[in-house]
């Protein structure tokens, strides 16, 4: 082959590669995360730990994508030079920073005040002030759940329009919660009669949403807590009542009996009903819906919409595709995947215009080639794996659940328990860099040369932007155990120095 032919082929390869990079830039869906505090008090260090992880997760994708595009364009330019006998092609002058800017990730702020009884006056203002002080910026105006009851009510109406059998048999795959049209366990149960956990068949038209008259004490008396997290599995009392004695249910409703509304989950059929998703920290997670999750409350007896329903609706409508939170919410993720699935089957995405024109994936990427996915370390969805009804959708986010933050006695930090808050730390003279640096250390960030005041490797002050230089999820995965704050940790934090 002549030098000229080699040059032409190299030039063609470079052009194709450049087109792929350009396509990735144009089709990449930005990472969108969210801060979602409950305004029940001042932020504490555990909240900051989770919020910093959210901020880093979103912006690390920006960083990694920009670096990957820079490397590819440098390679393309080098190939162009060789292919065109030393002449530099105009594509070598492309501005990779502009491509990264077009796909810049966002962090949204949502004030989760759907339960007004838990809200503390001005707590939302304290939270925003602390976030500004810490340098954890967000995009756009805050969203208040208390102002979105009409949207949650609309979602509930859509769910009420279906029976359990209408939505039961289309599920999600093992990767990232992406719909592939199979049953949740990859075993089709179509045509099987849904069954209760006691083995009795449910009516074919058993509603997806049904009234529950049980009090909390009734459920505590009838259910045993699941291991570890104290979760109470609903024993199905009112599901059985409706299936066997629908007239009694109607009589109670006519009499105005106070009741919550529950969302039914698939019952037993050949094979298990298992939600499977990949977590960035804890790996593959499996939750069997009837035996580990159960029928869940989506509207309480006092008329307040549940956290689970509100969160799914808000994340979906605001485009959130990167969710970071504590490991205690792993089971909640299984609940939310089911809620998201049945909302999709009920027409929620069509009603709110949530179907983009290009093929989307649970990881937030458009189908633009494996090399583009490599830039952020997640697979691109092959649109052929989606059934026609689901093509073009972006159903599920990626999830990362963090080890919890406990005090020296092993009790989880919480506002309601009076955990040391950011206001107290600020009054004690702590700097934003000290608080961020301590939380970064808890996330496994180990900058070179960092020395603790005790001359051992430990946390060092840094800004969020500085922490971003060193953040990788491997640092969190390296230690999945809950973090224990030693006695005197707050004094250590305020004395923290870069060097001794």
From TrEMBL:
<keyword id="KW-0067">ATP-binding</keyword>
<keyword id="KW-0648">Protein biosynthesis</keyword>
<dbReference type="InterPro" id="IPR001412">
    <property type="entry name" value="aa-tRNA-synth_I_CS"/>
</dbReference>
<dbReference type="Pfam" id="PF00749">
    <property type="entry name" value="tRNA-synt_1c"/>
</dbReference>
<feature type="region of interest" description="Disordered">
    <location>
        <begin position="81"/>
        <end position="100"/>
    </location>
</feature>
<protein>
    <submittedName>
        <fullName>Glutamyl-tRNA synthetase</fullName>
    </submittedName>
</protein>
<dbReference type="InterPro" id="IPR020058">
    <property type="entry name" value="Glu/Gln-tRNA-synth_Ib_cat-dom"/>
</dbReference>
<dbReference type="GO" id="GO:0004818">
    <property type="term" value="F:glutamate-tRNA ligase activity"/>
</dbReference>
<dbReference type="GO" id="GO:0005829">
    <property type="term" value="C:cytosol"/>
</dbReference>
<dbReference type="InterPro" id="IPR014729">
    <property type="entry name" value="Rossmann-like_a/b/a_fold"/>
</dbReference>
<dbReference type="GO" id="GO:0006424">
    <property type="term" value="P:glutamyl-tRNA aminoacylation"/>
</dbReference>
<keyword id="KW-0436">Ligase</keyword>
<dbReference type="InterPro" id="IPR049940">
    <property type="entry name" value="GluQ/Sye"/>
</dbReference>
<keyword id="KW-0030">Aminoacyl-tRNA synthetase</keyword>
<keyword id="KW-0547">Nucleotide-binding</keyword>
<dbReference type="GO" id="GO:0005524">
    <property type="term" value="F:ATP binding"/>
</dbReference>
<feature type="compositionally biased region" description="Basic and acidic residues">
    <location>
        <begin position="81"/>
        <end position="93"/>
    </location>
</feature>
<comment type="similarity">
    <text>Belongs to the class-I aminoacyl-tRNA synthetase family.</text>
</comment>
<feature type="domain" description="Glutamyl/glutaminyl-tRNA synthetase class Ib catalytic">
    <location>
        <begin position="100"/>
        <end position="157"/>
    </location>
</feature>
<feature type="domain" description="Glutamyl/glutaminyl-tRNA synthetase class Ib catalytic">
    <location>
        <begin position="210"/>
        <end position="345"/>
    </location>
</feature>
């Amino acid at each position: 082959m002549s030098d000229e032919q080699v040059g032409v082929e190299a030039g063609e390869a470079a052009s194709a590669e450049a087109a792929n990079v350009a396509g990735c830039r144009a089709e990449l869906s930005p990472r969108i995360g969210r801060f979602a505090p409950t305004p029940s008090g001042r932020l504490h260090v555990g909240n900051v730990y989770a919020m910093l992880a959210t901020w880093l997760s979103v912006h690390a994708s920006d960083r990694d994508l920009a670096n990957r595009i820079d490397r590819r364009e440098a390679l393309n330019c080098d190939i162009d030079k060789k292919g065109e006998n030393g002449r530099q092609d105009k594509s070598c002058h492309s501005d990779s920073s502009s491509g990264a800017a077009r796909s810049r990730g966002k962090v949204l702020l949502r004030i989760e005040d759907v339960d007004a009884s838990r809200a503390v006056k001005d707590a939302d203002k304290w939270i925003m002030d602390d976030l500004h002080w810490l340098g954890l910026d967000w995009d756009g105006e805050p969203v208040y759940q208390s102002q979105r009851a009409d949207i949650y009510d609309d979602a509930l109406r859509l769910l009420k329009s279906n029976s359990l059998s209408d939505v039961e048999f289309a599920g999600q795959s093992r990767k990232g919660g992406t719909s592939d049209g199979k049953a949740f366990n990859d075993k089709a149960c179509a045509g099987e009669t849904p069954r209760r956990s006691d083995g009795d068949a449910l009516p074919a038209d058993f509603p997806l949403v049904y009234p529950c008259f049980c009090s909390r004490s009734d459920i505590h008396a009838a259910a045993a807590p699941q291991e570890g997290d104290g979760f109470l599995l609903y024993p199905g009392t009112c599901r059985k009542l409706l299936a066997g004695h629908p007239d009694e249910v109607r009589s109670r409703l006519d009499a105005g009996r106070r009741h919550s509304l529950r969302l039914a989950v698939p019952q037993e059929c050949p094979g298990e009903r298992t939600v499977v998703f990949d977590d960035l920290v804890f790996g593959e997670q499996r939750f069997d819906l009837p035996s580990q999750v159960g029928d869940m409350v989506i509207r309480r007896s006092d008329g307040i919409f549940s956290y689970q329903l509100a969160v799914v609706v808000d994340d979906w409508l605001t485009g959130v595709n990167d969710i970071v939170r504590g490991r205690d919410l792993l089971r909640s993720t299984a609940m939310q995947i089911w809620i998201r699935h049945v909302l999709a089957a009920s027409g929620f995405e069509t009603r709110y215009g949530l179907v983009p024109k290009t093929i989307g994936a649970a990881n937030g990427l458009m189908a633009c080639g494996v090399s583009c996915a490599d830039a952020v370390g997640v697979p691109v969805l092959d649109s052929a794996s989606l059934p026609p009804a689901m093509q073009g959708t972006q159903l599920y986010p990626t999830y990362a659940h963090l080890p919890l933050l406990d005090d020296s006695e092993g009790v989880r930090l919480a506002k309601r328990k009076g955990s040391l808050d950011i206001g107290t730390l600020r009054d004690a003279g702590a700097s934003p860099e000290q608080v961020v640096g301590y939380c970064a250390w808890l996330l496994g960030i180990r900058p070179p040369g960092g020395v603790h005041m005790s001359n051992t490797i430990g946390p060092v002050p840094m800004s969020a932007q500085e922490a971003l230089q060193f953040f990788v999820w491997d640092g969190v995965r390296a230690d999945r155990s809950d973090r224990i704050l030693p006695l005197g940790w707050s004094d250590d934090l305020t004395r923290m120095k870069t060097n001794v």
